[in-house]
Amino acid sequence: MTWLEYVDTWLLVWFNRWIGHSPETFSSALKISNRAPWILAAALLTWLWFSGDEGWVPFRTTYTRWMARRRVLSILAALVAGFGLARVAQTIVPRPRPFNVVALQVPIVPSVWDKIRASMATQGAFPSDHAVMFFIIVLGLGSLSRKGGAPALVGALFFSALRVGLGFHWPSDMLGGAVIGAIALGLVVLVERVWPQPWDWVIALFYRLPAIAYPVGFLLLFDLSQKFAGLFGLVVQVLGHDVAH
Amino acid sequence: MSWDITWVLWLNDFIAQSERLFLWALFLSDRVPWVLSSLTLVALWFARRQAGEQVQEFHDRDPVYRQRIRVFSVGLGALLAFIVARPMAYYWNRPRPFLVMPIKAPIDPQIWAEIMRILGSDGAFPSDHTAFWGAITAGVFLTSPWWGIVALIATAFFAAVRVALGYHYPTDMIAGFFIGVFCVLLVYGFRHKLRWLFDPWLLLFNHQPAWAYALSLMVLLDITQRMTWFFGIMATAFGLNFPR
Protein backbone atom coordinates (compact mmCIF):
# COMPACT_ATOMS: atom_id res chain seq x y z
CA MET A 1 0.00 0.00 0.00
CA THR A 2 1.44 3.37 -1.02
CA TRP A 3 1.32 6.35 1.36
CA LEU A 4 -1.43 7.94 -0.77
CA GLU A 5 -3.60 4.82 -0.52
CA TYR A 6 -2.94 4.70 3.21
CA VAL A 7 -3.98 8.33 3.76
CA ASP A 8 -6.96 7.93 1.41
CA THR A 9 -8.22 4.83 3.20
CA TRP A 10 -7.63 6.27 6.67
CA LEU A 11 -9.57 9.47 5.89
CA LEU A 12 -12.31 7.50 4.12
CA VAL A 13 -12.86 5.18 7.06
CA TRP A 14 -12.77 8.13 9.49
CA PHE A 15 -15.45 10.08 7.56
CA ASN A 16 -17.51 6.91 7.05
CA ARG A 17 -17.53 6.24 10.81
CA TRP A 18 -18.79 9.78 11.31
CA ILE A 19 -21.62 9.36 8.77
CA GLY A 20 -22.39 5.67 9.15
CA HIS A 21 -22.96 5.59 12.90
CA SER A 22 -26.76 5.70 12.47
CA PRO A 23 -29.26 5.03 9.66
CA GLU A 24 -30.68 8.56 10.11
CA THR A 25 -27.30 10.26 9.64
CA PHE A 26 -26.47 8.09 6.66
CA SER A 27 -29.86 8.71 4.98
CA SER A 28 -29.58 12.46 5.63
CA ALA A 29 -26.05 12.46 4.16
CA LEU A 30 -27.37 10.63 1.08
CA LYS A 31 -30.19 13.14 0.65
CA ILE A 32 -28.01 16.21 1.25
CA SER A 33 -25.12 15.08 -0.95
CA ASN A 34 -27.39 14.39 -3.90
CA ARG A 35 -29.20 17.56 -4.97
CA ALA A 36 -28.44 20.17 -2.29
CA PRO A 37 -24.96 21.21 -3.54
CA TRP A 38 -26.30 21.77 -7.06
CA ILE A 39 -29.23 23.84 -5.82
CA LEU A 40 -26.88 25.86 -3.61
CA ALA A 41 -24.53 26.34 -6.58
CA ALA A 42 -27.39 27.78 -8.62
CA ALA A 43 -28.33 30.09 -5.72
CA LEU A 44 -24.70 31.21 -5.28
CA LEU A 45 -24.36 32.04 -8.97
CA THR A 46 -27.58 34.08 -8.77
CA TRP A 47 -26.23 35.84 -5.68
CA LEU A 48 -22.99 36.67 -7.49
CA TRP A 49 -24.83 37.86 -10.63
CA PHE A 50 -26.72 40.51 -8.65
CA SER A 51 -23.89 41.41 -6.26
CA GLY A 52 -21.29 44.15 -6.67
CA ASP A 53 -21.75 47.85 -7.20
CA GLU A 54 -23.58 49.25 -10.18
CA GLY A 55 -21.61 51.57 -12.43
CA TRP A 56 -17.95 51.41 -13.37
CA VAL A 57 -16.31 52.18 -10.02
CA PRO A 58 -16.90 49.97 -6.98
CA PHE A 59 -17.75 52.00 -3.87
CA ARG A 60 -19.30 49.64 -1.30
CA THR A 61 -17.67 46.37 -2.35
CA THR A 62 -14.41 45.61 -4.12
CA TYR A 63 -15.98 44.84 -7.48
CA THR A 64 -18.63 46.13 -9.86
CA ARG A 65 -21.72 44.23 -10.94
CA TRP A 66 -20.31 44.00 -14.44
CA MET A 67 -17.18 42.28 -13.08
CA ALA A 68 -19.36 39.92 -11.05
CA ARG A 69 -21.36 39.02 -14.15
CA ARG A 70 -18.23 38.35 -16.16
CA ARG A 71 -17.10 36.02 -13.38
CA VAL A 72 -20.45 34.18 -13.33
CA LEU A 73 -20.14 33.53 -17.06
CA SER A 74 -16.54 32.40 -16.55
CA ILE A 75 -17.69 29.99 -13.84
CA LEU A 76 -20.34 28.53 -16.16
CA ALA A 77 -17.81 28.15 -18.98
CA ALA A 78 -15.29 26.63 -16.54
CA LEU A 79 -17.95 24.13 -15.39
CA VAL A 80 -18.36 22.87 -18.95
CA ALA A 81 -14.56 22.76 -19.48
CA GLY A 82 -14.01 21.18 -16.03
CA PHE A 83 -16.57 18.43 -16.60
CA GLY A 84 -14.97 17.72 -19.99
CA LEU A 85 -11.49 17.50 -18.44
CA ALA A 86 -12.83 15.32 -15.61
CA ARG A 87 -14.42 12.95 -18.12
CA VAL A 88 -11.10 12.64 -19.98
CA ALA A 89 -9.27 12.01 -16.68
CA GLN A 90 -11.84 9.31 -15.77
CA THR A 91 -11.03 7.40 -18.94
CA ILE A 92 -7.27 7.75 -18.39
CA VAL A 93 -7.35 6.79 -14.68
CA PRO A 94 -9.98 4.06 -14.21
CA ARG A 95 -10.28 3.94 -10.43
CA PRO A 96 -12.91 1.84 -8.61
CA ARG A 97 -15.31 3.50 -6.17
CA PRO A 98 -14.39 3.03 -2.48
CA PHE A 99 -17.65 1.18 -1.72
CA ASN A 100 -16.44 -1.56 -4.09
CA VAL A 101 -13.07 -1.88 -2.38
CA VAL A 102 -13.36 -1.02 1.32
CA ALA A 103 -15.76 -2.54 3.88
CA LEU A 104 -17.86 0.46 4.92
CA GLN A 105 -20.57 1.08 7.48
CA VAL A 106 -23.80 1.34 5.47
CA PRO A 107 -26.74 1.26 7.91
CA ILE A 108 -29.55 1.43 5.31
CA VAL A 109 -31.69 -1.14 3.51
CA PRO A 110 -29.30 -3.19 1.28
CA SER A 111 -31.62 -3.02 -1.75
CA VAL A 112 -31.57 0.80 -1.63
CA TRP A 113 -27.78 0.81 -1.32
CA ASP A 114 -27.46 -1.66 -4.21
CA LYS A 115 -29.55 0.68 -6.40
CA ILE A 116 -27.27 3.62 -5.54
CA ARG A 117 -24.17 1.55 -6.29
CA ALA A 118 -25.63 0.37 -9.59
CA SER A 119 -26.39 3.96 -10.61
CA MET A 120 -22.68 4.80 -10.20
CA ALA A 121 -21.30 1.60 -11.70
CA THR A 122 -20.50 3.08 -15.12
CA GLN A 123 -18.42 5.97 -13.79
CA GLY A 124 -14.94 5.82 -12.25
CA ALA A 125 -14.10 7.51 -8.96
CA PHE A 126 -11.24 9.78 -10.07
CA PRO A 127 -11.74 12.73 -10.27
CA SER A 128 -14.98 13.79 -8.58
CA ASP A 129 -17.35 15.81 -10.80
CA HIS A 130 -18.85 17.28 -7.66
CA ALA A 131 -15.44 18.52 -6.47
CA VAL A 132 -14.85 20.09 -9.89
CA MET A 133 -18.12 22.00 -9.50
CA PHE A 134 -17.58 22.89 -5.80
CA PHE A 135 -14.12 24.32 -6.31
CA ILE A 136 -14.84 26.19 -9.53
CA ILE A 137 -17.60 28.04 -7.67
CA VAL A 138 -15.52 28.55 -4.51
CA LEU A 139 -12.55 29.92 -6.46
CA GLY A 140 -14.73 31.99 -8.78
CA LEU A 141 -16.56 33.52 -5.86
CA GLY A 142 -13.44 33.87 -3.71
CA SER A 143 -11.51 35.61 -6.49
CA LEU A 144 -13.99 38.49 -6.27
CA SER A 145 -15.15 38.41 -2.68
CA ARG A 146 -13.30 36.76 0.17
CA LYS A 147 -16.39 37.26 2.33
CA GLY A 148 -18.42 35.19 -0.12
CA GLY A 149 -15.64 32.71 -0.84
CA ALA A 150 -14.98 31.69 2.77
CA PRO A 151 -18.46 30.27 3.57
CA ALA A 152 -18.55 28.70 0.10
CA LEU A 153 -15.23 26.96 0.89
CA VAL A 154 -16.65 25.64 4.17
CA GLY A 155 -19.68 24.34 2.23
CA ALA A 156 -17.46 22.73 -0.41
CA LEU A 157 -15.36 20.96 2.22
CA PHE A 158 -18.51 19.78 4.02
CA PHE A 159 -20.08 18.33 0.86
CA SER A 160 -16.74 16.79 -0.14
CA ALA A 161 -16.49 15.12 3.27
CA LEU A 162 -20.05 13.78 2.87
CA ARG A 163 -19.28 12.18 -0.47
CA VAL A 164 -16.10 10.62 0.90
CA GLY A 165 -17.93 9.37 4.01
CA LEU A 166 -20.63 7.79 1.86
CA GLY A 167 -17.94 5.84 0.01
CA PHE A 168 -18.61 7.48 -3.37
CA HIS A 169 -15.08 8.92 -3.63
CA TRP A 170 -11.60 8.72 -2.15
CA PRO A 171 -10.29 11.95 -0.61
CA SER A 172 -7.72 12.18 -3.43
CA ASP A 173 -10.62 12.12 -5.98
CA MET A 174 -11.93 15.29 -4.38
CA LEU A 175 -8.45 16.81 -4.43
CA GLY A 176 -8.08 15.84 -8.10
CA GLY A 177 -11.48 17.39 -8.84
CA ALA A 178 -10.44 20.57 -7.05
CA VAL A 179 -7.22 20.79 -9.08
CA ILE A 180 -9.07 20.20 -12.36
CA GLY A 181 -11.64 22.83 -11.32
CA ALA A 182 -8.86 25.31 -10.54
CA ILE A 183 -7.15 24.65 -13.90
CA ALA A 184 -10.43 25.01 -15.82
CA LEU A 185 -11.37 28.25 -14.06
CA GLY A 186 -7.82 29.62 -14.38
CA LEU A 187 -7.83 29.03 -18.13
CA VAL A 188 -11.27 30.56 -18.62
CA VAL A 189 -10.44 33.62 -16.47
CA LEU A 190 -7.25 34.06 -18.51
CA VAL A 191 -9.34 34.16 -21.69
CA GLU A 192 -11.80 36.51 -19.95
CA ARG A 193 -8.95 38.94 -19.18
CA VAL A 194 -7.41 38.79 -22.66
CA TRP A 195 -10.61 38.72 -24.72
CA PRO A 196 -13.56 40.03 -22.66
CA GLN A 197 -15.75 40.94 -25.66
CA PRO A 198 -17.78 37.68 -25.76
CA TRP A 199 -18.47 38.02 -22.02
CA ASP A 200 -19.56 41.64 -22.44
CA TRP A 201 -21.75 40.76 -25.40
CA VAL A 202 -23.64 38.16 -23.32
CA ILE A 203 -24.00 40.52 -20.35
CA ALA A 204 -25.27 43.29 -22.65
CA LEU A 205 -28.00 40.90 -23.83
CA PHE A 206 -29.35 40.80 -20.28
CA TYR A 207 -29.69 44.60 -20.36
CA ARG A 208 -31.12 44.82 -23.87
CA LEU A 209 -33.44 41.80 -23.87
CA PRO A 210 -34.06 40.97 -20.22
CA ALA A 211 -37.44 39.28 -20.77
CA ILE A 212 -35.71 36.71 -23.01
CA ALA A 213 -32.20 36.52 -21.53
CA TYR A 214 -33.29 36.01 -17.90
CA PRO A 215 -35.67 33.10 -18.64
CA VAL A 216 -32.84 31.46 -20.62
CA GLY A 217 -30.51 32.08 -17.66
CA PHE A 218 -33.08 30.60 -15.32
CA LEU A 219 -33.37 27.50 -17.53
CA LEU A 220 -29.58 27.09 -17.32
CA LEU A 221 -29.61 27.40 -13.53
CA PHE A 222 -32.57 25.03 -13.32
CA ASP A 223 -30.57 22.48 -15.31
CA LEU A 224 -27.56 23.07 -13.04
CA SER A 225 -29.80 22.37 -10.03
CA GLN A 226 -30.79 19.09 -11.76
CA LYS A 227 -27.12 18.09 -12.15
CA PHE A 228 -27.29 19.03 -15.86
CA ALA A 229 -29.84 16.30 -16.58
CA GLY A 230 -31.20 18.29 -19.53
CA LEU A 231 -27.76 19.05 -20.98
CA PHE A 232 -26.64 15.42 -20.68
CA GLY A 233 -29.98 14.31 -22.15
CA LEU A 234 -29.25 16.53 -25.14
CA VAL A 235 -25.72 15.10 -25.44
CA VAL A 236 -27.17 11.57 -25.34
CA GLN A 237 -29.61 12.50 -28.13
CA VAL A 238 -26.75 13.90 -30.23
CA LEU A 239 -24.21 11.12 -29.54
CA GLY A 240 -26.77 8.34 -29.61
CA HIS A 241 -25.39 6.56 -26.53
CA ASP A 242 -25.60 6.97 -22.76
CA VAL A 243 -23.26 9.33 -20.89
CA ALA A 244 -22.66 8.73 -17.18
CA HIS A 245 -22.97 11.82 -14.98
CA MET B 1 -72.64 15.83 -17.41
CA SER B 2 -72.26 13.60 -20.43
CA TRP B 3 -69.92 15.93 -22.36
CA ASP B 4 -67.56 15.87 -19.38
CA ILE B 5 -67.28 12.08 -19.61
CA THR B 6 -67.19 12.07 -23.43
CA TRP B 7 -64.19 14.45 -23.48
CA VAL B 8 -62.25 12.34 -20.99
CA LEU B 9 -62.84 9.18 -23.04
CA TRP B 10 -62.12 10.87 -26.37
CA LEU B 11 -58.86 12.45 -25.19
CA ASN B 12 -57.82 9.25 -23.44
CA ASP B 13 -58.49 7.26 -26.61
CA PHE B 14 -56.22 9.68 -28.45
CA ILE B 15 -53.19 9.36 -26.14
CA ALA B 16 -53.69 5.63 -25.55
CA GLN B 17 -52.97 4.88 -29.22
CA SER B 18 -49.41 3.95 -28.29
CA GLU B 19 -47.23 3.51 -25.23
CA ARG B 20 -44.89 6.23 -26.51
CA LEU B 21 -47.69 8.79 -26.78
CA PHE B 22 -49.00 7.90 -23.32
CA LEU B 23 -45.51 8.22 -21.80
CA TRP B 24 -45.16 11.60 -23.48
CA ALA B 25 -48.46 12.64 -21.92
CA LEU B 26 -47.20 11.50 -18.50
CA PHE B 27 -43.97 13.47 -19.02
CA LEU B 28 -45.84 16.59 -20.12
CA SER B 29 -48.28 16.37 -17.22
CA ASP B 30 -45.52 16.08 -14.66
CA ARG B 31 -42.81 18.77 -14.40
CA VAL B 32 -42.89 20.57 -17.76
CA PRO B 33 -45.80 22.98 -17.03
CA TRP B 34 -44.23 23.89 -13.70
CA VAL B 35 -40.87 24.69 -15.27
CA LEU B 36 -42.74 26.77 -17.85
CA SER B 37 -44.64 28.52 -15.04
CA SER B 38 -41.35 29.52 -13.39
CA LEU B 39 -39.95 30.68 -16.74
CA THR B 40 -43.08 32.77 -17.31
CA LEU B 41 -42.74 34.40 -13.90
CA VAL B 42 -39.11 35.29 -14.68
CA ALA B 43 -40.12 36.73 -18.07
CA LEU B 44 -42.95 38.70 -16.44
CA TRP B 45 -40.59 40.09 -13.78
CA PHE B 46 -38.18 41.42 -16.39
CA ALA B 47 -40.80 42.44 -18.98
CA ARG B 48 -41.34 46.13 -19.68
CA ARG B 49 -38.09 47.00 -17.95
CA GLN B 50 -37.02 50.24 -19.54
CA ALA B 51 -33.87 51.23 -17.68
CA GLY B 52 -31.88 49.71 -14.86
CA GLU B 53 -32.96 46.78 -12.78
CA GLN B 54 -34.63 48.64 -9.97
CA VAL B 55 -37.88 50.34 -9.18
CA GLN B 56 -37.14 54.07 -9.37
CA GLU B 57 -40.41 55.33 -7.96
CA PHE B 58 -42.84 53.40 -5.76
CA HIS B 59 -45.83 54.54 -7.79
CA ASP B 60 -47.92 53.28 -10.72
CA ARG B 61 -46.17 55.89 -12.89
CA ASP B 62 -43.03 53.74 -12.79
CA PRO B 63 -43.41 50.93 -15.39
CA VAL B 64 -41.00 48.68 -13.50
CA TYR B 65 -43.00 49.13 -10.28
CA ARG B 66 -46.28 48.45 -12.13
CA GLN B 67 -44.91 45.28 -13.69
CA ARG B 68 -43.45 43.90 -10.49
CA ILE B 69 -46.70 44.53 -8.65
CA ARG B 70 -48.36 42.37 -11.32
CA VAL B 71 -45.90 39.57 -10.63
CA PHE B 72 -46.51 39.80 -6.88
CA SER B 73 -50.26 39.76 -7.60
CA VAL B 74 -49.80 36.56 -9.61
CA GLY B 75 -47.80 34.97 -6.78
CA LEU B 76 -50.27 35.94 -4.09
CA GLY B 77 -53.23 35.14 -6.36
CA ALA B 78 -51.83 31.68 -7.09
CA LEU B 79 -51.38 31.04 -3.37
CA LEU B 80 -54.93 32.24 -2.68
CA ALA B 81 -56.27 30.06 -5.52
CA PHE B 82 -54.60 27.07 -3.96
CA ILE B 83 -56.03 27.91 -0.52
CA VAL B 84 -59.51 28.14 -2.10
CA ALA B 85 -59.16 25.05 -4.32
CA ARG B 86 -57.90 22.60 -1.70
CA PRO B 87 -60.86 22.78 0.72
CA MET B 88 -63.23 22.69 -2.28
CA ALA B 89 -61.63 19.46 -3.49
CA TYR B 90 -61.96 18.06 0.02
CA TYR B 91 -65.63 19.15 0.32
CA TRP B 92 -66.75 17.86 -3.11
CA ASN B 93 -64.55 14.77 -2.97
CA ARG B 94 -65.27 13.96 -6.60
CA PRO B 95 -63.57 10.70 -7.56
CA ARG B 96 -60.96 10.97 -10.29
CA PRO B 97 -62.02 9.68 -13.73
CA PHE B 98 -59.48 6.80 -13.65
CA LEU B 99 -61.27 5.41 -10.58
CA VAL B 100 -64.75 5.32 -12.13
CA MET B 101 -64.18 5.12 -15.88
CA PRO B 102 -62.50 2.62 -18.21
CA ILE B 103 -59.32 4.66 -18.73
CA LYS B 104 -56.80 3.03 -21.06
CA ALA B 105 -53.14 3.09 -19.91
CA PRO B 106 -50.82 1.21 -22.31
CA ILE B 107 -47.85 1.30 -19.93
CA ASP B 108 -46.36 -0.96 -17.25
CA PRO B 109 -49.37 -1.76 -14.98
CA GLN B 110 -47.17 -1.33 -11.89
CA ILE B 111 -46.32 2.25 -12.82
CA TRP B 112 -49.96 3.05 -13.56
CA ALA B 113 -51.07 1.43 -10.28
CA GLU B 114 -48.53 3.59 -8.42
CA ILE B 115 -49.84 6.77 -10.11
CA MET B 116 -53.43 5.78 -9.25
CA ARG B 117 -52.43 5.07 -5.67
CA ILE B 118 -50.76 8.48 -5.27
CA LEU B 119 -53.53 10.53 -6.91
CA GLY B 120 -56.52 8.35 -6.08
CA SER B 121 -57.06 9.58 -2.53
CA ASP B 122 -57.37 13.18 -3.68
CA GLY B 123 -60.61 14.81 -4.92
CA ALA B 124 -60.76 15.80 -8.59
CA PHE B 125 -62.84 19.01 -8.41
CA PRO B 126 -61.42 21.62 -8.85
CA SER B 127 -57.91 21.13 -10.28
CA ASP B 128 -55.32 23.03 -8.27
CA HIS B 129 -52.88 22.63 -11.17
CA THR B 130 -55.09 24.72 -13.46
CA ALA B 131 -55.81 27.10 -10.60
CA PHE B 132 -52.07 27.84 -10.55
CA TRP B 133 -51.77 27.98 -14.33
CA GLY B 134 -54.90 30.17 -14.49
CA ALA B 135 -53.18 32.60 -12.12
CA ILE B 136 -50.07 32.68 -14.34
CA THR B 137 -52.20 33.14 -17.49
CA ALA B 138 -54.05 36.05 -15.87
CA GLY B 139 -50.69 37.65 -15.03
CA VAL B 140 -49.51 37.31 -18.63
CA PHE B 141 -52.81 38.79 -19.88
CA LEU B 142 -52.33 41.80 -17.59
CA THR B 143 -48.92 42.40 -19.21
CA SER B 144 -49.63 41.57 -22.83
CA PRO B 145 -52.93 40.31 -24.29
CA TRP B 146 -51.12 38.65 -27.22
CA TRP B 147 -48.80 36.68 -24.98
CA GLY B 148 -51.85 36.06 -22.80
CA ILE B 149 -53.45 34.17 -25.68
CA VAL B 150 -50.28 32.07 -26.02
CA ALA B 151 -50.39 31.33 -22.27
CA LEU B 152 -54.08 30.44 -22.55
CA ILE B 153 -53.38 27.97 -25.37
CA ALA B 154 -50.53 26.43 -23.33
CA THR B 155 -52.78 26.11 -20.27
CA ALA B 156 -55.53 24.51 -22.36
CA PHE B 157 -53.00 22.05 -23.78
CA PHE B 158 -51.61 20.97 -20.40
CA ALA B 159 -55.13 20.80 -18.97
CA ALA B 160 -56.17 18.55 -21.88
CA VAL B 161 -53.19 16.28 -21.17
CA ARG B 162 -54.31 15.82 -17.56
CA VAL B 163 -57.87 15.14 -18.70
CA ALA B 164 -56.58 12.59 -21.23
CA LEU B 165 -54.68 10.77 -18.48
CA GLY B 166 -57.91 10.46 -16.49
CA TYR B 167 -56.70 12.66 -13.64
CA HIS B 168 -59.51 15.21 -14.08
CA TYR B 169 -62.77 15.97 -15.85
CA PRO B 170 -62.86 19.06 -18.11
CA THR B 171 -65.14 20.79 -15.58
CA ASP B 172 -62.43 20.37 -12.89
CA MET B 173 -59.98 22.15 -15.16
CA ILE B 174 -62.39 24.96 -16.12
CA ALA B 175 -63.31 25.55 -12.47
CA GLY B 176 -59.63 25.53 -11.42
CA PHE B 177 -58.72 27.93 -14.19
CA PHE B 178 -61.40 30.44 -13.25
CA ILE B 179 -60.48 30.22 -9.56
CA GLY B 180 -56.88 31.11 -10.50
CA VAL B 181 -57.92 33.98 -12.76
CA PHE B 182 -60.41 35.32 -10.22
CA CYS B 183 -57.88 35.25 -7.37
CA VAL B 184 -55.24 37.14 -9.38
CA LEU B 185 -57.76 39.75 -10.51
CA LEU B 186 -58.95 40.10 -6.92
CA VAL B 187 -55.42 40.64 -5.59
CA TYR B 188 -54.55 42.95 -8.49
CA GLY B 189 -57.74 44.94 -7.91
CA PHE B 190 -56.71 45.49 -4.29
CA ARG B 191 -53.04 46.13 -5.11
CA HIS B 192 -53.10 49.67 -3.71
CA LYS B 193 -54.43 48.35 -0.41
CA LEU B 194 -51.73 45.67 -0.39
CA ARG B 195 -48.79 48.06 -0.70
CA TRP B 196 -47.84 47.32 2.90
CA LEU B 197 -47.22 43.75 1.76
CA PHE B 198 -45.61 44.32 -1.66
CA ASP B 199 -43.46 47.41 -1.16
CA PRO B 200 -41.09 46.01 1.49
CA TRP B 201 -40.26 43.12 -0.86
CA LEU B 202 -39.62 45.52 -3.70
CA LEU B 203 -37.38 47.55 -1.38
CA LEU B 204 -35.45 44.37 -0.63
CA PHE B 205 -34.88 43.85 -4.37
CA ASN B 206 -33.59 47.43 -4.57
CA HIS B 207 -31.28 47.34 -1.57
CA GLN B 208 -30.18 43.71 -1.35
CA PRO B 209 -30.62 42.41 -4.90
CA ALA B 210 -28.11 39.56 -4.49
CA TRP B 211 -29.98 38.03 -1.54
CA ALA B 212 -33.45 38.82 -2.90
CA TYR B 213 -32.77 37.20 -6.29
CA ALA B 214 -31.03 34.18 -4.73
CA LEU B 215 -34.09 33.66 -2.51
CA SER B 216 -36.41 34.12 -5.50
CA LEU B 217 -34.45 31.50 -7.41
CA MET B 218 -35.13 29.03 -4.59
CA VAL B 219 -38.87 29.83 -4.76
CA LEU B 220 -38.86 29.38 -8.55
CA LEU B 221 -36.93 26.12 -8.30
CA ASP B 222 -39.48 24.95 -5.74
CA ILE B 223 -42.28 25.73 -8.22
CA THR B 224 -40.50 23.49 -10.75
CA GLN B 225 -40.55 20.74 -8.09
CA ARG B 226 -44.32 21.27 -7.66
CA MET B 227 -43.58 23.09 -4.40
CA THR B 228 -42.09 20.10 -2.63
CA TRP B 229 -40.15 22.28 -0.17
CA PHE B 230 -43.17 24.51 0.49
CA PHE B 231 -45.35 21.50 1.30
CA GLY B 232 -42.50 19.97 3.30
CA ILE B 233 -42.24 23.13 5.42
CA MET B 234 -46.03 23.24 5.86
CA ALA B 235 -46.00 19.59 6.97
CA THR B 236 -43.00 19.94 9.28
CA ALA B 237 -43.79 23.33 10.80
CA PHE B 238 -47.61 23.27 10.92
CA GLY B 239 -48.48 19.59 10.58
CA LEU B 240 -50.46 20.34 7.39
CA ASN B 241 -50.31 17.48 4.91
CA PHE B 242 -51.69 18.27 1.49
CA PRO B 243 -52.22 15.39 -0.89
CA ARG B 244 -50.68 16.27 -4.28
What can you see in these coordinates?
- The complex is a heterodimer of chains A (245) and B (244).
- Chain A has 245 residues and is mainly alpha-helical.
- Chain A has helices spanning 3-19, 23-34, 36-49, 65-92, 110-119, 129-144, 146-165, 171-194, 197-208, 210-225, 229-239.
- Chain A has a single domain (3-209), classed as Vanadium-containing Chloroperoxidase, domain 1.
- Chain A is 73% helix and 0% strand.
- By secondary structure, chain B is an all-alpha fold.
- Chain B has one domain: Vanadium-containing Chloroperoxidase, domain 1, CATH 1.20.144.
- In chain B, helix 3 (32-46) packs antiparallel against helix 11 (209-224) and helix 7 (128-143) crosses helix 9.
- The interface between A and B is medium-sized, with 21 and 25 residues.
Keywords:
heterodimer; A: 245 residues; mainly alpha; Vanadium-containing Chloroperoxidase, domain 1; 0% strand; globular; B: 244 residues; 75% helix; elongated
> Helix/strand-derived class of chain A?
mainly alpha
What's the CATH architecture of chain B?
Up-down Bundle
> Mean of residue pLDDT of chain A?
87
Task: Work out the count of structural domains of chain B.
Answer: 1
State the total count of DSSP E strands of chain B.
0
How big a fraction of the residues of chain A is strand?
under 5%
CATH topology-level fold name of chain A: Vanadium-containing Chloroperoxidase, domain 1
* Name of the CATH first level of chain B: Mainly Alpha
Overall pLDDT level of chain B:
87
The major beta sheet of chain B can be summarized as:
none
- Spans where pLDDT lies below 50 across 5 or more residues of chain A: none
Specify the number of helices of chain B.
Answer: 12
Largest interface: A-B, 21 and 25 residues
Radius of gyration of chain A: 19 Å
Counting structural domains of chain A, the number is 1
